[in-house]
Design brief:
Blueprint lengths: L1 E8 L1 H4 L25 H10 L4 E6 L7 H8 L10 E5 L2 H4 L6 H17 L3 E6 L3 H5 L3 H25 L2 E4 L21 H17 L19 H35 L10 H10 L1
Helix pairs in contact: 2-8, 3-5, 5-7, 7-9
Amino acid sequence: MSLHYVALGDSTTVGVGDPLNGSTTDLSGAGARPGEGWRGWASLLADSLGSSHRVTFSNLATSGATAPVVAADQLPATGAGPIDLASLIVGVNDTMRSSFDAAQIRDCLWYCAEQLTGRGALLLTVRFHDHGQVFGLPSWLRLPLWQRIERVNAAYDELHARFGGIRIDMADYPEVYRREFWSIDRLHPAERGHRHLARAFADELQRQGLHIAVPPALDCAGQPPTKWADAAWMLREGVPWLTRRAHDLTPWATRLALTHLRPGLLSTARSPVDAEVQRLRA
């Protein structure tokens, strides 16, 4: 039996955090394409599927991708022929930008799902966990980030209800909140995290009747970062990264916090931030 599997998404689907050879603390992924130094869950799943089937695998994910990028750039690159499996996992990058637009994300995801399933694809998606808990963000920044993630999750709920397929709820897996699941940046899965995600999808595919002779292995060659490596990375890379993200999130998060504390304080404002606050409170 032959299978055509296409993977769409961002740096997690590229495989960032799961190096092909050795270990690395450079997780920028700038300009990275699948196969350039990273393996990742999608490749692990494709290899496992290859134990029982003739697999054609196209990983079209790109680091830094947002939902509009997937719809505009990655989806057309899938061609026009039949597809058996299609993974569509994107949205976290969208939540960390001042241009966050939940309706646009939903429309892009819906369009991709409609096109992919229309060509016969079984859709593979996720429900995201609380990234702020993994990052260790302060509560005033963690709450608005989680509210944005939940709005992305709501879009995936709609997709799953309409198009079916397999959906992995990351919050259902206790290991998601363990340090060893994550690479040194706590944003991308480490080798262990990628292996667990690949295995979760493989297990669900088998429950739906797709035979997989050799499921993705859970044993890892790499080791979790040491406390010293964690600290060194945080000073060199983590603080600048958080500063860049805070530039997008802080004004909106602060205004949201004030609105919750003093509902009438900003009642006459008419900025895009106020519109976002009203949508979240609705």
